[in-house]
Amino acid sequence: MPELPEVETVRRGLTRLVGGATIQSVTVLYPKMVSPEAATFVADLTGKTIEKIDRRGKYLLFRFNGDLTMVSHLRMEGKYDVQPAGSPVTKHTHVVFTLTDGRELRYTDTRKFGRMRLMATGKETTLPGLATMGPEPTEATLTFDYMKQRFQKSKKAIKPFLLDQSNIAGLGNIYVDETLWMSRIHPLQEVNTLPDFQIRQLRENIIKELNMAILGHGTTVHSFSTAFGEAGEFQNHLRVYGRKGLACQRCGTPIEKTKVAQRGTAFCPACQKYHKHVKQTMILGLTGGIATGKSTVSAVFREFDIPVIDADAIAHSVLAPGSDGVDQVWEAFGDRVFEAGKLNRKALGHIVFNDADELKRLTDITGPLISAAIKAAVSTYRRKHANLVVLDAPTLFEAGYAAKTNEIMVVKISAAQQLQRLMARDDLSEDQAESRIKSQLPLQNKIEKADVVIDNSGSVETTRVQVVEWLDKMGFIKTPAEDSAG
Ligand SMILES: CC(C)(COP(=O)(O)OP(=O)(O)OC[C@H]1O[C@@H](n2cnc3c(N)ncnc32)[C@H](O)[C@@H]1O)[C@@H](O)C(=O)NCCC(=O)NCCS
Ligand SMILES: Nc1ncnc2c1ncn2[C@@H]1O[C@H](COP(=O)(O)OP(=O)(O)OP(=O)(O)O)[C@@H](O)[C@H]1O
Protein backbone atom coordinates (compact mmCIF):
# COMPACT_ATOMS: atom_id res chain seq x y z
CA MET A 1 0.00 0.00 0.00
CA PRO A 2 1.44 3.38 -0.90
CA GLU A 3 2.59 5.35 2.15
CA LEU A 4 3.32 9.06 2.40
CA PRO A 5 6.49 9.07 0.23
CA GLU A 6 4.79 7.15 -2.57
CA VAL A 7 1.69 9.36 -2.53
CA GLU A 8 3.91 12.45 -2.45
CA THR A 9 5.87 11.07 -5.41
CA VAL A 10 2.60 10.61 -7.31
CA ARG A 11 1.53 14.14 -6.33
CA ARG A 12 4.77 15.65 -7.63
CA GLY A 13 4.57 13.65 -10.85
CA LEU A 14 0.94 14.54 -11.49
CA THR A 15 1.59 18.21 -10.74
CA ARG A 16 4.18 18.22 -13.53
CA LEU A 17 2.03 16.20 -15.90
CA VAL A 18 -1.47 17.64 -15.47
CA GLY A 19 -1.14 20.77 -13.30
CA GLY A 20 -3.06 23.49 -15.17
CA ALA A 21 -4.84 21.01 -17.49
CA THR A 22 -8.56 21.34 -18.18
CA ILE A 23 -11.03 18.47 -18.16
CA GLN A 24 -13.09 18.07 -21.30
CA SER A 25 -15.08 15.04 -20.15
CA VAL A 26 -15.03 12.28 -17.57
CA THR A 27 -15.87 8.58 -18.04
CA VAL A 28 -16.63 6.58 -14.93
CA LEU A 29 -16.36 2.85 -15.68
CA TYR A 30 -16.80 1.69 -12.08
CA PRO A 31 -19.44 3.95 -10.50
CA LYS A 32 -18.90 2.69 -6.93
CA MET A 33 -15.51 4.33 -6.97
CA VAL A 34 -16.75 7.92 -7.07
CA SER A 35 -19.03 10.18 -5.09
CA PRO A 36 -21.35 11.99 -5.44
CA GLU A 37 -23.02 9.58 -7.83
CA ALA A 38 -21.36 9.27 -11.23
CA ALA A 39 -23.61 11.62 -13.25
CA THR A 40 -23.09 14.51 -10.82
CA PHE A 41 -19.38 13.71 -10.47
CA VAL A 42 -19.00 13.93 -14.27
CA ALA A 43 -21.11 17.07 -14.65
CA ASP A 44 -19.32 18.91 -11.83
CA LEU A 45 -15.87 18.18 -13.21
CA THR A 46 -16.50 18.86 -16.88
CA GLY A 47 -14.76 22.07 -17.96
CA LYS A 48 -12.85 22.41 -14.70
CA THR A 49 -9.11 23.11 -14.51
CA ILE A 50 -6.70 21.31 -12.16
CA GLU A 51 -5.22 24.31 -10.39
CA LYS A 52 -3.10 22.43 -7.91
CA ILE A 53 -2.61 19.03 -6.35
CA ASP A 54 -2.11 18.88 -2.58
CA ARG A 55 -1.59 15.97 -0.25
CA ARG A 56 -2.61 15.28 3.31
CA GLY A 57 -1.26 12.06 4.80
CA LYS A 58 -1.91 9.40 2.17
CA TYR A 59 -4.72 11.38 0.48
CA LEU A 60 -4.33 13.29 -2.79
CA LEU A 61 -6.35 16.51 -3.00
CA PHE A 62 -6.98 17.69 -6.57
CA ARG A 63 -7.92 21.39 -6.42
CA PHE A 64 -10.14 22.64 -9.23
CA ASN A 65 -11.37 26.11 -10.04
CA GLY A 66 -14.81 26.87 -8.67
CA ASP A 67 -13.71 25.82 -5.18
CA LEU A 68 -13.96 22.12 -5.93
CA THR A 69 -11.69 19.48 -4.43
CA MET A 70 -11.43 15.82 -5.41
CA VAL A 71 -10.16 13.70 -2.52
CA SER A 72 -8.47 10.57 -3.85
CA HIS A 73 -7.08 7.67 -1.85
CA LEU A 74 -5.11 5.02 -3.74
CA ARG A 75 -5.66 2.34 -1.04
CA MET A 76 -3.76 -0.85 -1.96
CA GLU A 77 -3.11 -0.66 -5.68
CA GLY A 78 -4.49 2.58 -7.13
CA LYS A 79 -2.46 4.29 -9.87
CA TYR A 80 -2.74 7.39 -12.02
CA ASP A 81 -1.16 7.64 -15.41
CA VAL A 82 -1.38 9.95 -18.39
CA GLN A 83 -1.87 8.58 -21.94
CA PRO A 84 -2.78 9.97 -25.36
CA ALA A 85 -6.58 10.08 -25.77
CA GLY A 86 -8.00 6.99 -27.42
CA SER A 87 -5.12 4.65 -26.61
CA PRO A 88 -6.41 1.32 -25.27
CA VAL A 89 -7.52 1.16 -21.63
CA THR A 90 -6.97 -1.89 -19.42
CA LYS A 91 -9.67 -3.88 -17.69
CA HIS A 92 -8.53 -2.28 -14.46
CA THR A 93 -9.05 1.29 -15.70
CA HIS A 94 -12.00 2.67 -13.74
CA VAL A 95 -12.07 6.44 -14.27
CA VAL A 96 -10.84 8.40 -17.32
CA PHE A 97 -10.48 12.19 -17.29
CA THR A 98 -10.19 13.36 -20.89
CA LEU A 99 -8.20 16.59 -21.04
CA THR A 100 -8.70 19.39 -23.58
CA ASP A 101 -5.08 18.97 -24.80
CA GLY A 102 -5.62 15.49 -26.28
CA ARG A 103 -4.42 13.46 -23.29
CA GLU A 104 -6.22 11.36 -20.72
CA LEU A 105 -5.60 11.13 -16.99
CA ARG A 106 -6.54 7.58 -16.05
CA TYR A 107 -7.09 5.86 -12.77
CA THR A 108 -6.46 2.11 -12.62
CA ASP A 109 -6.86 -0.12 -9.60
CA THR A 110 -6.65 -3.94 -9.72
CA ARG A 111 -8.26 -4.26 -6.28
CA LYS A 112 -10.90 -1.53 -6.82
CA PHE A 113 -10.42 -0.27 -3.26
CA GLY A 114 -9.51 3.32 -4.21
CA ARG A 115 -12.09 6.09 -3.80
CA MET A 116 -12.62 9.61 -5.25
CA ARG A 117 -14.84 12.13 -3.53
CA LEU A 118 -15.73 15.48 -4.98
CA MET A 119 -16.68 18.25 -2.56
CA ALA A 120 -16.46 21.98 -1.88
CA THR A 121 -12.87 22.96 -1.09
CA GLY A 122 -12.39 23.16 2.67
CA LYS A 123 -15.11 20.61 3.33
CA GLU A 124 -12.62 17.74 2.95
CA THR A 125 -11.28 18.42 6.41
CA THR A 126 -14.55 17.05 7.80
CA LEU A 127 -14.16 13.65 6.09
CA PRO A 128 -13.73 10.88 8.68
CA GLY A 129 -10.14 9.96 7.69
CA LEU A 130 -9.02 13.57 7.36
CA ALA A 131 -10.85 15.12 10.31
CA THR A 132 -8.92 13.11 12.87
CA MET A 133 -5.61 12.90 11.02
CA GLY A 134 -2.47 13.59 13.05
CA PRO A 135 0.23 16.08 12.04
CA GLU A 136 2.27 15.77 8.86
CA PRO A 137 5.75 14.43 9.69
CA THR A 138 7.75 17.61 9.04
CA GLU A 139 10.08 19.65 11.25
CA ALA A 140 7.47 22.38 11.59
CA THR A 141 4.35 20.29 12.13
CA LEU A 142 5.45 17.25 14.13
CA THR A 143 6.74 18.75 17.34
CA PHE A 144 8.40 16.96 20.25
CA ASP A 145 5.87 18.49 22.65
CA TYR A 146 2.96 17.09 20.63
CA MET A 147 4.54 13.64 20.51
CA LYS A 148 5.39 13.63 24.18
CA GLN A 149 1.88 14.49 25.38
CA ARG A 150 0.29 12.08 22.90
CA PHE A 151 2.69 9.24 23.74
CA GLN A 152 2.16 9.65 27.48
CA LYS A 153 -1.52 8.83 27.07
CA SER A 154 -1.15 5.53 25.22
CA LYS A 155 -0.34 2.06 26.52
CA LYS A 156 -0.55 0.61 23.00
CA ALA A 157 2.37 -1.11 21.32
CA ILE A 158 4.36 1.41 19.29
CA LYS A 159 3.88 -0.35 15.92
CA PRO A 160 0.06 -0.18 15.72
CA PHE A 161 0.21 3.25 17.36
CA LEU A 162 2.34 4.60 14.51
CA LEU A 163 0.16 2.92 11.88
CA ASP A 164 -2.83 4.80 13.29
CA GLN A 165 -3.08 7.90 11.11
CA SER A 166 -4.68 9.90 13.90
CA ASN A 167 -1.36 9.94 15.77
CA ILE A 168 0.99 10.84 12.91
CA ALA A 169 0.00 11.14 9.25
CA GLY A 170 1.45 9.07 6.45
CA LEU A 171 3.25 6.09 7.98
CA GLY A 172 2.51 2.53 6.84
CA ASN A 173 4.04 -0.88 7.45
CA ILE A 174 7.37 -0.29 5.70
CA TYR A 175 8.34 3.07 7.16
CA VAL A 176 7.17 2.13 10.67
CA ASP A 177 9.53 -0.86 10.63
CA GLU A 178 12.35 1.24 9.21
CA THR A 179 12.02 4.12 11.68
CA LEU A 180 11.69 1.76 14.67
CA TRP A 181 14.92 0.05 13.59
CA MET A 182 16.62 3.43 13.22
CA SER A 183 15.45 4.38 16.72
CA ARG A 184 16.27 0.96 18.34
CA ILE A 185 12.69 0.54 19.52
CA HIS A 186 11.03 -2.88 19.77
CA PRO A 187 7.76 -2.92 17.79
CA LEU A 188 5.86 -4.17 20.86
CA GLN A 189 7.26 -1.53 23.24
CA GLU A 190 4.38 0.27 24.97
CA VAL A 191 4.21 3.88 23.80
CA ASN A 192 4.08 5.41 27.29
CA THR A 193 7.28 3.64 28.33
CA LEU A 194 9.44 5.48 25.80
CA PRO A 195 11.90 7.91 27.41
CA ASP A 196 12.17 11.45 26.04
CA PHE A 197 15.35 10.71 24.12
CA GLN A 198 13.67 7.92 22.17
CA ILE A 199 10.70 10.12 21.34
CA ARG A 200 13.17 12.69 20.01
CA GLN A 201 15.04 10.04 18.01
CA LEU A 202 11.83 8.63 16.60
CA ARG A 203 10.60 12.08 15.63
CA GLU A 204 13.82 12.90 13.84
CA ASN A 205 14.03 9.51 12.14
CA ILE A 206 10.45 9.66 10.88
CA ILE A 207 11.02 13.10 9.37
CA LYS A 208 14.41 12.14 7.92
CA GLU A 209 13.35 8.76 6.55
CA LEU A 210 10.21 10.01 4.82
CA ASN A 211 12.15 12.86 3.24
CA MET A 212 14.81 10.46 2.00
CA ALA A 213 12.13 8.14 0.62
CA ILE A 214 10.52 11.05 -1.24
CA LEU A 215 13.93 11.93 -2.73
CA GLY A 216 14.20 8.25 -3.77
CA HIS A 217 10.78 8.48 -5.51
CA GLY A 218 9.19 6.06 -3.06
CA THR A 219 9.54 2.34 -2.44
CA THR A 220 8.42 -0.30 -4.92
CA VAL A 221 8.18 -3.70 -3.28
CA HIS A 222 4.95 -4.81 -4.85
CA SER A 223 3.30 -2.68 -7.45
CA PHE A 224 3.90 0.99 -6.78
CA SER A 225 4.86 3.14 -9.73
CA THR A 226 5.24 6.88 -10.13
CA ALA A 227 2.90 8.98 -12.29
CA PHE A 228 5.48 8.44 -15.04
CA GLY A 229 5.00 4.67 -14.79
CA GLU A 230 8.44 4.12 -13.24
CA ALA A 231 9.33 2.11 -10.13
CA GLY A 232 10.59 3.94 -7.03
CA GLU A 233 14.19 3.50 -5.92
CA PHE A 234 13.98 3.59 -2.13
CA GLN A 235 13.55 -0.20 -1.79
CA ASN A 236 17.33 -0.35 -2.26
CA HIS A 237 17.81 1.65 0.93
CA LEU A 238 15.54 -0.28 3.30
CA ARG A 239 17.32 -1.61 6.38
CA VAL A 240 14.87 -4.15 7.85
CA TYR A 241 11.76 -4.45 5.71
CA GLY A 242 12.07 -7.46 3.41
CA ARG A 243 15.42 -8.44 4.98
CA LYS A 244 14.37 -11.36 7.18
CA GLY A 245 17.38 -13.60 7.88
CA LEU A 246 19.88 -11.07 6.51
CA ALA A 247 22.45 -9.44 8.77
CA CYS A 248 21.46 -6.26 10.57
CA GLN A 249 23.47 -3.52 8.88
CA ARG A 250 24.37 -2.11 12.28
CA CYS A 251 25.28 -5.12 14.42
CA GLY A 252 25.25 -8.18 12.15
CA THR A 253 22.47 -10.09 13.98
CA PRO A 254 19.99 -11.76 11.57
CA ILE A 255 16.82 -9.70 11.08
CA GLU A 256 13.69 -11.44 12.37
CA LYS A 257 10.15 -11.27 11.10
CA THR A 258 7.13 -11.56 13.34
CA LYS A 259 3.47 -10.47 13.40
CA VAL A 260 2.42 -7.41 15.35
CA ALA A 261 -1.22 -6.36 15.19
CA GLN A 262 -1.69 -8.71 12.21
CA ARG A 263 1.04 -6.99 10.25
CA GLY A 264 4.29 -8.59 9.12
CA THR A 265 7.00 -6.88 11.17
CA ALA A 266 10.75 -6.97 10.62
CA PHE A 267 13.19 -5.97 13.38
CA CYS A 268 16.66 -6.63 14.78
CA PRO A 269 16.39 -8.69 17.98
CA ALA A 270 19.73 -7.35 19.25
CA CYS A 271 19.38 -3.62 18.50
CA GLN A 272 15.65 -3.42 19.26
CA LYS A 273 15.30 -5.04 22.65
CA TYR A 274 11.99 -5.01 24.50
CA HIS A 275 12.30 -3.26 27.88
CA LYS A 276 9.96 -4.07 30.72
CA HIS A 277 10.70 -0.77 32.41
CA VAL A 278 11.54 2.64 31.02
CA LYS A 279 15.25 2.87 30.21
CA GLN A 280 15.93 6.49 31.00
CA THR A 281 19.67 6.55 30.25
CA MET A 282 20.68 7.09 26.65
CA ILE A 283 23.89 5.33 25.59
CA LEU A 284 25.65 7.20 22.82
CA GLY A 285 28.33 5.16 21.06
CA LEU A 286 31.21 7.39 19.97
CA THR A 287 33.61 5.98 17.43
CA GLY A 288 35.68 6.74 14.34
CA GLY A 289 39.04 5.71 13.03
CA ILE A 290 42.26 5.88 15.03
CA ALA A 291 43.14 9.55 15.63
CA THR A 292 40.07 10.95 13.88
CA GLY A 293 39.17 12.90 17.02
CA LYS A 294 37.09 10.80 19.44
CA SER A 295 38.95 12.17 22.45
CA THR A 296 38.52 15.67 21.10
CA VAL A 297 34.74 15.09 20.91
CA SER A 298 34.69 13.34 24.32
CA ALA A 299 36.21 16.46 25.84
CA VAL A 300 33.12 18.42 24.77
CA PHE A 301 30.82 15.94 26.50
CA ARG A 302 32.92 16.10 29.66
CA GLU A 303 32.70 19.88 29.54
CA PHE A 304 28.91 19.46 29.96
CA ASP A 305 29.45 17.01 32.85
CA ILE A 306 28.27 14.10 30.72
CA PRO A 307 29.90 10.84 31.79
CA VAL A 308 32.20 9.24 29.23
CA ILE A 309 33.16 5.57 29.39
CA ASP A 310 36.54 5.40 27.71
CA ALA A 311 37.04 1.93 26.21
CA ASP A 312 40.72 2.66 25.55
CA ALA A 313 41.25 3.47 29.23
CA ILE A 314 39.40 0.29 30.19
CA ALA A 315 41.55 -1.62 27.69
CA HIS A 316 44.62 -0.24 29.46
CA SER A 317 43.28 -1.18 32.89
CA VAL A 318 42.55 -4.78 31.89
CA LEU A 319 46.22 -5.12 30.97
CA ALA A 320 47.51 -3.32 34.07
CA PRO A 321 50.49 -4.84 35.90
CA GLY A 322 49.42 -7.86 37.96
CA SER A 323 46.04 -8.22 36.20
CA ASP A 324 44.60 -11.52 34.95
CA GLY A 325 44.68 -10.00 31.49
CA VAL A 326 48.46 -9.58 31.59
CA ASP A 327 48.88 -13.19 32.72
CA GLN A 328 46.80 -14.38 29.79
CA VAL A 329 48.79 -12.20 27.38
CA TRP A 330 52.00 -13.69 28.71
CA GLU A 331 50.61 -17.21 28.14
CA ALA A 332 49.49 -16.35 24.61
CA PHE A 333 52.40 -14.19 23.42
CA GLY A 334 55.29 -15.12 25.70
CA ASP A 335 58.35 -13.16 26.74
CA ARG A 336 58.70 -11.33 23.42
CA VAL A 337 56.13 -8.74 24.58
CA PHE A 338 57.57 -8.32 28.07
CA GLU A 339 60.49 -6.26 29.23
CA ALA A 340 61.82 -6.60 32.76
CA GLY A 341 58.60 -8.41 33.70
CA LYS A 342 56.45 -5.53 32.42
CA LEU A 343 54.13 -5.68 29.40
CA ASN A 344 55.68 -3.80 26.48
CA ARG A 345 52.58 -2.34 24.82
CA LYS A 346 54.54 -0.93 21.88
CA ALA A 347 55.99 -4.37 21.11
CA LEU A 348 52.57 -6.00 21.43
CA GLY A 349 51.06 -3.29 19.22
CA HIS A 350 53.75 -3.90 16.62
CA ILE A 351 52.80 -7.60 16.46
CA VAL A 352 49.01 -7.32 16.48
CA PHE A 353 48.64 -4.35 14.14
CA ASN A 354 50.63 -6.18 11.47
CA ASP A 355 48.85 -9.53 11.67
CA ALA A 356 45.08 -10.02 11.84
CA ASP A 357 45.41 -13.46 13.50
CA GLU A 358 47.60 -12.06 16.26
CA LEU A 359 45.17 -9.20 16.78
CA LYS A 360 42.35 -11.74 17.14
CA ARG A 361 44.44 -13.73 19.63
CA LEU A 362 44.80 -10.55 21.72
CA THR A 363 41.18 -9.40 21.47
CA ASP A 364 39.93 -12.88 22.40
CA ILE A 365 41.65 -12.18 25.71
CA THR A 366 40.87 -8.48 26.14
CA GLY A 367 37.37 -8.43 24.53
CA PRO A 368 35.41 -10.22 27.30
CA LEU A 369 37.29 -8.29 30.03
CA ILE A 370 36.63 -4.90 28.38
CA SER A 371 33.02 -5.85 27.68
CA ALA A 372 32.35 -6.79 31.32
CA ALA A 373 33.91 -3.55 32.55
CA ILE A 374 31.82 -1.49 30.13
CA LYS A 375 28.67 -3.30 31.24
CA ALA A 376 29.45 -2.60 34.89
CA ALA A 377 30.11 1.09 34.18
CA VAL A 378 26.83 1.42 32.24
CA SER A 379 24.90 -0.20 35.11
CA THR A 380 26.42 2.23 37.58
CA TYR A 381 25.34 5.22 35.50
CA ARG A 382 21.85 3.77 35.00
CA ARG A 383 21.50 3.39 38.76
CA LYS A 384 22.50 7.03 39.12
CA HIS A 385 19.76 7.95 36.58
CA ALA A 386 22.18 9.64 34.20
CA ASN A 387 20.32 11.02 31.17
CA LEU A 388 23.19 10.42 28.79
CA VAL A 389 26.33 8.30 28.89
CA VAL A 390 28.91 8.34 26.10
CA LEU A 391 30.73 5.12 25.25
CA ASP A 392 33.94 6.17 23.52
CA ALA A 393 35.14 3.01 21.77
CA PRO A 394 37.42 2.89 18.72
CA THR A 395 36.30 -0.66 17.98
CA LEU A 396 32.59 -0.10 18.68
CA PHE A 397 31.54 -2.05 15.58
CA GLU A 398 34.38 -4.56 15.46
CA ALA A 399 33.97 -5.57 19.13
CA GLY A 400 30.17 -5.85 18.93
CA TYR A 401 29.19 -2.94 21.18
CA ALA A 402 27.00 -1.26 18.55
CA ALA A 403 23.86 -3.16 19.55
CA LYS A 404 24.29 -1.94 23.13
CA THR A 405 23.95 1.71 22.17
CA ASN A 406 20.94 3.89 21.42
CA GLU A 407 22.69 6.01 18.84
CA ILE A 408 26.07 6.07 17.16
CA MET A 409 28.21 9.14 16.51
CA VAL A 410 31.16 8.76 14.14
CA VAL A 411 33.99 11.31 14.00
CA LYS A 412 35.42 11.71 10.52
CA ILE A 413 38.39 13.37 8.87
CA SER A 414 40.02 12.78 5.48
CA ALA A 415 42.42 9.86 4.98
CA ALA A 416 45.36 12.26 4.54
CA GLN A 417 44.53 14.13 7.75
CA GLN A 418 44.16 10.85 9.66
CA LEU A 419 47.59 9.65 8.59
CA GLN A 420 49.22 12.99 9.34
CA ARG A 421 47.55 13.47 12.78
CA LEU A 422 48.33 9.89 13.82
CA MET A 423 51.99 10.13 12.78
CA ALA A 424 52.37 13.45 14.60
CA ARG A 425 50.59 12.42 17.81
CA ASP A 426 52.11 8.96 18.28
CA ASP A 427 55.44 9.67 16.63
CA LEU A 428 54.91 6.85 14.11
CA SER A 429 56.40 6.31 10.67
CA GLU A 430 54.05 6.41 7.70
CA ASP A 431 54.16 2.59 7.45
CA GLN A 432 53.42 2.10 11.13
CA ALA A 433 50.54 4.56 11.02
CA GLU A 434 49.12 2.93 7.91
CA SER A 435 49.15 -0.55 9.38
CA ARG A 436 47.26 0.69 12.48
CA ILE A 437 44.66 2.34 10.28
CA LYS A 438 44.34 -0.82 8.17
CA SER A 439 43.74 -3.01 11.23
CA GLN A 440 40.43 -1.19 11.78
CA LEU A 441 37.16 -1.32 9.87
CA PRO A 442 37.42 1.33 7.09
CA LEU A 443 36.20 4.74 8.28
CA GLN A 444 33.75 4.98 5.37
CA ASN A 445 32.12 1.78 6.55
CA LYS A 446 31.60 3.29 10.00
CA ILE A 447 30.21 6.51 8.51
CA GLU A 448 27.59 4.47 6.65
CA LYS A 449 26.45 2.89 9.92
CA ALA A 450 26.42 6.16 11.85
CA ASP A 451 23.33 8.01 13.02
CA VAL A 452 25.28 11.24 13.28
CA VAL A 453 28.61 12.16 11.74
CA ILE A 454 30.88 14.81 13.27
CA ASP A 455 33.26 16.37 10.77
CA ASN A 456 36.54 17.02 12.58
CA SER A 457 38.46 18.15 9.51
CA GLY A 458 38.16 21.81 10.49
CA SER A 459 39.13 23.51 13.73
CA VAL A 460 38.49 22.02 17.17
CA GLU A 461 35.97 24.83 17.71
CA THR A 462 34.00 23.87 14.57
CA THR A 463 33.86 20.33 15.92
CA ARG A 464 32.72 21.56 19.32
CA VAL A 465 29.85 23.50 17.72
CA GLN A 466 28.57 20.31 16.02
CA VAL A 467 28.60 18.38 19.29
CA VAL A 468 26.84 21.18 21.17
CA GLU A 469 24.20 21.32 18.44
CA TRP A 470 23.55 17.60 18.85
CA LEU A 471 23.29 17.95 22.64
CA ASP A 472 20.88 20.81 22.23
CA LYS A 473 18.74 18.97 19.66
CA MET A 474 18.50 15.96 21.95
CA GLY A 475 17.39 18.09 24.89
CA PHE A 476 20.53 17.52 26.96
CA ILE A 477 21.39 21.17 27.39
CA LYS A 478 19.19 22.70 30.01
CA THR A 479 18.30 26.38 29.90
CA PRO A 480 19.14 28.26 33.14
CA ALA A 481 15.39 28.22 34.06
CA GLU A 482 15.11 24.43 33.60
CA ASP A 483 18.30 23.99 35.58
CA SER A 484 17.08 25.92 38.59
CA ALA A 485 13.77 24.02 38.45
CA GLY A 486 15.88 20.88 38.94
C1 LIG B 1 47.75 -3.57 21.23
C2 LIG B 1 47.79 -2.59 22.38
C3 LIG B 1 48.42 -3.22 23.59
C4 LIG B 1 48.64 -1.38 21.93
O1 LIG B 1 48.69 -0.46 22.97
P1 LIG B 1 49.05 1.09 22.74
O2 LIG B 1 49.24 1.67 24.11
O3 LIG B 1 50.17 1.20 21.77
O4 LIG B 1 47.78 1.72 22.04
P2 LIG B 1 46.34 2.08 22.65
O5 LIG B 1 45.82 0.98 23.51
O6 LIG B 1 46.40 3.40 23.28
O7 LIG B 1 45.42 2.11 21.35
C5 LIG B 1 45.57 3.14 20.41
C6 LIG B 1 44.57 2.99 19.32
O8 LIG B 1 44.76 1.76 18.59
C7 LIG B 1 43.55 1.35 18.09
N1 LIG B 1 43.23 -0.02 18.54
C8 LIG B 1 43.45 -0.58 19.76
N2 LIG B 1 42.98 -1.84 19.77
C9 LIG B 1 42.47 -2.08 18.57
C10 LIG B 1 41.84 -3.21 17.98
N3 LIG B 1 41.58 -4.31 18.66
N4 LIG B 1 41.41 -3.12 16.69
C11 LIG B 1 41.63 -1.99 16.00
N5 LIG B 1 42.19 -0.89 16.50
C12 LIG B 1 42.63 -0.95 17.77
C13 LIG B 1 42.46 2.28 18.64
O9 LIG B 1 42.15 3.25 17.72
C14 LIG B 1 43.15 2.91 19.82
O10 LIG B 1 42.63 4.16 20.15
C15 LIG B 1 46.35 -2.09 22.74
O11 LIG B 1 45.84 -1.34 21.72
C16 LIG B 1 45.40 -3.22 23.07
O12 LIG B 1 45.46 -3.81 24.12
N6 LIG B 1 44.44 -3.49 22.16
C17 LIG B 1 43.46 -4.53 22.36
C18 LIG B 1 42.34 -4.04 23.18
C19 LIG B 1 41.31 -3.34 22.37
O13 LIG B 1 40.63 -3.95 21.57
N7 LIG B 1 41.21 -2.01 22.57
C20 LIG B 1 40.21 -1.23 21.92
C21 LIG B 1 39.26 -0.71 22.93
S1 LIG B 1 37.61 -0.91 22.44
N1 LIG C 1 40.12 19.62 14.66
C1 LIG C 1 41.40 19.32 14.87
N2 LIG C 1 42.37 20.05 14.30
C2 LIG C 1 43.69 19.76 14.47
N3 LIG C 1 44.12 18.71 15.20
C3 LIG C 1 43.20 17.94 15.79
C4 LIG C 1 41.80 18.19 15.65
N4 LIG C 1 41.12 17.23 16.34
C5 LIG C 1 42.05 16.42 16.87
N5 LIG C 1 43.29 16.84 16.54
C6 LIG C 1 44.57 16.18 16.93
O1 LIG C 1 44.58 14.92 16.24
C7 LIG C 1 45.08 13.90 17.09
C8 LIG C 1 44.01 12.80 17.24
O2 LIG C 1 42.87 13.30 17.93
P1 LIG C 1 42.23 12.48 19.12
O3 LIG C 1 43.25 12.07 20.09
O4 LIG C 1 41.06 13.25 19.62
O5 LIG C 1 41.75 11.20 18.29
P2 LIG C 1 41.10 9.86 18.78
O6 LIG C 1 40.12 9.49 17.76
O7 LIG C 1 40.63 10.02 20.17
O8 LIG C 1 42.33 8.87 18.75
P3 LIG C 1 42.41 7.32 19.21
O9 LIG C 1 41.84 6.53 18.10
O10 LIG C 1 43.85 7.06 19.36
O11 LIG C 1 41.64 7.22 20.48
C9 LIG C 1 45.44 14.57 18.42
O12 LIG C 1 46.80 14.86 18.40
C10 LIG C 1 44.62 15.85 18.41
O13 LIG C 1 45.22 16.89 19.15
Can you tell me about this structure?
This protein is α/β, with parallel strands linked by helices. The protein folds into 3 domains: 4-131, N-terminal domain of MutM-like DNA repair proteins (Alpha-Beta Barrel); 144-267, Helicase, Ruva Protein, domain 3, CATH 1.10.8.50; 282-318 and 368-481, Rossmann fold (3-Layer(aba) Sandwich), CATH 3.40.50.300. Helix content is 38%, strand content 19%. It has 17 helices and 18 strands. The strands form 5 sheets. It has a 5-stranded mixed sheet with strand order 2-9-5-4-3, covered by helices on one side. A 5-stranded parallel sheet has the order 13-16-12-17-18, with helices on both faces. It has a 4-stranded antiparallel sheet with strand order 1-7-8-6, with helices on one face. The mean pLDDT is 95. The structure holds dephospho coenzyme A and adenosine-5'-triphosphate.
Distance between the termini: 47 Å
Low-confidence spans: pLDDT under 50, at least 5 residues? none
> Mean of residue pLDDT?
95
Helicity, as a percent range: 25-40%
* Number of DSSP helical runs: 17
List bound small molecules. Answer: dephospho coenzyme A, adenosine-5'-triphosphate
Largest sheet: 5 strands, mixed
Number of domain modules = 3
Number of DSSP E strands? 18
Q: Outline, from the CA principal axes? A: elongated
Beta-strand content bin? 15-25%
- Kindly provide the radius of gyration, computed on alpha-carbon positions and rounded to a whole number of angstroms: 28 Å
Name given to the CATH architecture of the largest domain:
3-Layer(aba) Sandwich
User: What is the CATH superfamily of the largest domain?
Assistant: P-loop containing nucleotide triphosphate hydrolases
The helix-and-strand class reads alpha/beta
Question: What order do the strands of the largest sheet run in, or round the barrel if closed?
Answer: 2-9-5-4-3
How is the CATH topology of the largest domain named? Rossmann fold
* CATH class term of the largest domain: Alpha Beta
Binding site for DNA: 92, 111
Pfam families: CoaE, Fapy_DNA_glyco, H2TH, zf-FPG_IleRS
Domain Formamidopyrimidine-DNA glycosylase catalytic: 2-114
EC number: 3.2.2.23, 4.2.99.18, 2.7.1.24
